[in-house]
Amino acid sequence: MTTSIPTQPVTQDQIMARLKTVIDPELNIDIVSLGLVYEVNVEPNTMKPHVEVIMTLTTPGCPLAAVFDTMVRDALIGLPGLDPDQGLHVKLTFDPPWVPDLMSEEAKAELGFD
Asked: Which terminus in the chain has less CB density within 10 A, N or C?
């Protein structure tokens, strides 16, 4: 008889670490450092976690909106118990609008905003 070890629920830190691997194809910097990720919510105490990623784009008319949704989903595949097709909601918002001040210091330096 084998006993399965229960998996730990997915954490906000794990999600943010994965989101740092999502690179903006135009700026070549990750979406976390660019300040595009506003919030990550993990619904606790569920067998199948539900995750909501609230993010923005640098401009409302960004043609890459659908691409980012797919990239975020792909980055979160394999997290414990998370089904990116059913347990993940990527919500785009433009309130508040993105401004360069939201970028990390490293991103600002790389893009010449310092």
From this structure: N
Give the residue ranges of DSSP H helices in the chain: 12-19, 65-76, 105-111
Give 5's contacts (C-beta < 8 A, 6+ positions apart): none
- Reported as a single tens digit per residue, the pLDDT across 94-112 is 999 999 999 999 999 999 9
Percent of the chain with pLDDT over 90: 61
At 61, which amino acid appears?
A: G
Q: State in words which class domain 12-109 has.
A: alpha beta
pTM equals 0.86
Sheet containing 37-43: give its strands across.
37-43, 50-55, 88-92
